[in-house]
Amino acid sequence: MNKLLIIGIVLTSICISAFAQKTTVTVPKLPIDTVTKKYTYTEVVQQKGTKDTLFNRAIHWIGIYFKNAQDVTDVRDKENGKIKGIYRFKIYNTPLKDGTKIEAGIISFTFNIELKENRYRYKITDLNKKGPSYNALEKWIEKSKTSPVPEMDSYITQIDQYMQDFIKSMKKGMTEAVKVKDEW
């Protein structure tokens, strides 16, 4: 009888500990520019096309991606192949049990697209959490290490996911346009 009781307690303990284990979420490491020490997403992408063709594709993509493209971009220099813009997006706290999202803040960033023959370079930098004063993301995240912000891992994951989606959309928009024959 005692053996059955002990076996029962051991099995119950094993089951409880198995269910109690939390799943670990891998927090992405945001890329840091070695010179500026700012979080920066950058890449040179090989893409067929003249500088003007790539510029037009970039402008077309911007017009599709952003609701108000004219307000987002402050530099559209076709001659020198440069586009610069500033945009922002929201991050959220963990949803409530009923699924309601609660806004945690707004992240702003600067993006640059530089175009040359058969290639372009994008650079996304100057990430900051909007507030009464400029709050560089690097300082906000560093400060959270001494004064913990409970959901910082979630915020970092959301920021990186937004940037990855932004880059993926841009690359797709910069590919050669498929021409449809209009035969009627």
Structural summary, described in words:
The chain is of the alpha+beta class. The protein has a single domain (34-169), classed as 2-Layer Sandwich (Alpha-D-Glucose-1,6-Bisphosphate, Chain A, domain 4), CATH 3.30.530.80. It is 39% helix and 26% strand. It has a five-stranded antiparallel sheet. A hairpin with a 4-residue loop joins strand 2 (73-77) and strand 3 (82-92). Helix 2 (51-65) packs across helix 5 (152-174). 14% of the residues are buried. The model is unreliable at 13-23 (pLDDT under 50).
Helix content: 25-40%
Given helix and strand content, the structural type is alpha+beta
Shape: globular
Kindly identify the CATH topology: Alpha-D-Glucose-1,6-Bisphosphate, Chain A, domain 4
Mean pLDDT: 85
Strand content: 25-35%
Q: What does the main sheet amount to?
A: 5 strands, antiparallel
Strands in their spatial order, largest beta sheet: 1-5-4-3-2
Number of domains: 1
What is the CATH class?
Answer: Alpha Beta
Q: Could you give the order of the helices and strands?
A: HEHHEEEEHH
Supply the number of helical segments. Answer: 5
Terminal CA distance reads 87 Å
Q: What Rg is obtained from the alpha carbons, in whole angstroms? A: 24 Å
Number of strands: 5
The stretches of 5 or more residues where confidence is low (pLDDT under 50) are: 13-23
